[in-house]
Amino acid sequence: MTDFTRRDAFKITAGGLAAAGGLVAMPSILRAANYPTRPINVIVPFATGGYNDRLSRAFAPYLEKEIGQPLVIVNKPGAGTQLGNSYALNQPADGYSILCTSAAPYIPLTVLLQNAPYKVEDFSMINLPSRDYTLAATSSDGPVKTFAEVIEKLKKDPTSLSIGVQPASADFANMVLAFQAAEIDATKLRIVTYDGGGPARNATAGAQVDVGFVGGEGFLPLKSKIRPLAIFAAEKVDWYPDAPLIGAAGIKTDFVEGSQRGWAVSTKLKNEQPEIYKFLVGAIERASKNPKSIETLKLQELATTWYGPEASDKAYLDNASKMAKYVDLLK
Amino acid sequence: MIDISAFNDALGIMFTSAGSWGWIVPGLIVGLVFSAIPGISITMAMAIVLPMSLYMDFFSAIVFLTSVYTGAGFGGSVPAILMNIPGSPSSFATTFDGYAMSQKGEHNEALGYALFASTLCGIAGYVLLLLVIEPLADIVLRIGPVEMFAVAIWGMMLLGSLGSAYISRGLLAAALGILLGTVGMNTAGFTRGTMGLPVLLDGIAPIPAMIGLLAASQLLSLASRDYIIEAEGSREVSLRKILKGCWGTLKYPGVLLRGSIIGIIIGAVPGVGSSIGNLIAYAETKRTAKDSATFGKGNPKGVIAAESAVASGEGGSMATMLALGIPGGGATAILIAAFMMHNIVPGPNFIETQKPMVYAIILNNIVQAIVLLAVGIGFIYVASNIMKVRTRYVLPAILVIATLGTFAVTGEAAGPITLFVFALLGYALNRYQYPVSAVVVGILLGRMLETEFLRSYQLSGGNPLYILERPAAMAIFAVMLASLAMTAWGKRKQNRAEAAEALAMERLRDEAAARHAAGATKS
After folding, report:
1. Which of A192, A225, A297 to mutate to test the interface with B (most CBs of B within 10 A)?
2. What is the interface pTM, i.e. ipTM, of the complex?
């Protein structure tokens, strides 16, 4: 190390940058051809142990077989998925980062309510097997028996029943829409807010609140402690057939679908690396249709239904536009 | 009550899957080591080993994970006692008397007290659980926001016993802590004090903030010394003294019992961590003790009270998890995930159909606690050797490990940055004699106070008479007030007695002086 000047260092750095730039600019086909050569990161914007985390870990062995590379689950929780989503978009669009997330309603909500620095269209869905719906429920020993009864009581006196719900959620929008349709004065309601589906469910099962509006799937382990009043779905839900549909409650109301969870990538990847995108779609499709994976995931109460990219994207975008339509209800 | 035939089946499960017992010791060690590292919480330790457990069969996986949980419940108290830096928030109250003891050269005994308080109450917690798991779970679900608010206020009363030179500065520090605790999006969806940073939407991460506040001041004050304890003779690591502490724990059955009960109930309530049980048990023991003035100056009862609530809280938390499928805190959320990954969904259905398995899990936890008695003694024996290392080696190592630990929580720079910012704040607070611990209590309780108050308000529609419909909340408030009044009454009596004594002394002195004066005039 004799005459190593700052100028030399600069030259070397510049050269390195140029080389790196060249690497990035290499024709995408060349890189796609030998994809994948190393493990793939699955970004889960939730903490360990949540639905998406479990889904990614349970599905990983089957997907690994199809991809031919190990999957690494990366948990990036926080700020209602905004941190994980931003992280995913900041990764190079080379197919080595995919998302397993509750795309709807979290991505639209972070955009609409938290001014997240991305657009709904920045994400492309590959498959969203898990579809959740808002469930209005009461404690199993509570006095209320039907949703019509809830409407009737609240019409007479909006303070007669307390209501538990998570603010700025699909459930909240559904609650407001239903009460608007029933012409209930929403300003006088006793609405108790919870910062997550879990606490809201506990409050419902423990009769802290008279009626809870929460995503229905999470209620399944507590099924014996609650009475379902109305589920906000158009057709009978296969995982909770005894839940009466909101349409049967005697009011005409629009509603937003609940969480849609599953596999997604950045739209940049889909557009710039069509080969890699196609490869991933194929791998996820085969893994989802693998009878062994269906059986294993079913035992863990996880969904594997194959809807495909088009149907999944449509469901996701529909949810986003409905959220945008009703965003004022959420604020 | 206990179902005898299911209990017998449970014993069967325990002994037929004896191979899984092999996971107890590794699990305990993992838990002890991770939680002893400042910045890594119980939840994190469990999250790290969760993927590993996927490759084990069901009972082994559960044994391994619950062993990590059991070990982690105690590990945090080791740095709390030796260095005044709690390994996790649930051992914060342990620092008050634990560190004071170790400064007196009684670190061996303090660790012994903490270990036995932790394990004995852990065992008590699980035994109780075996008997009342179902009714307990049902009661827990009925605990509403008003009751929770009462509990949070109870925790805040700890502030009164933190002792600071200036009351005004103590209150100001607590208010600052509560404000910091409410940063982020609140339960009603309003965002406060995030300065536009998305990482702050979930609030200030309590662990890096706590480590920053406490460690900064602590490390700076240690930096001026050669060793953590200055007196050379006090630095010894003695198994005999550790065992003396262990044995000494048994002399305070009342403190153990109270701590266990507080721990179980608070641990069982979903969403309330053992950090709050730890604070309340300490505050209650201090308030009711005859020698409350010596608390904070190295009273073993303080260590025992604080630790007893942590381990028993685990039992409570486990009850809610098994009986309802509801996680009491982060660690049990991970346990639930582990159950689900092995195709078992905890909840009312699980406890009805698989009672032997539930009992087997509880029994295994009791075994773990007993094993921890032995493993723990070994662990503290090794860990205490840090006393013999010069601070110039210890401090940088701790700083690096704590920074890495906070980074590991989210895998983002947000952790270390929080640590750094709060370290500066901690230094400033110390410099101007504001009690740092009051800020920590505020941060730990601020969010709970606000959330539960807001929900109580929403639920009651703003009508204060709503509390009349909540007898449990009234009972908590009544007990709290009664206990406060009794303390005040006791203090007053004590003050009066002291005043009378002082008066008597003065009179004596006066008389003596008068006699002296009289003598002087006579002569």
Report:
1. A192
2. 0.78
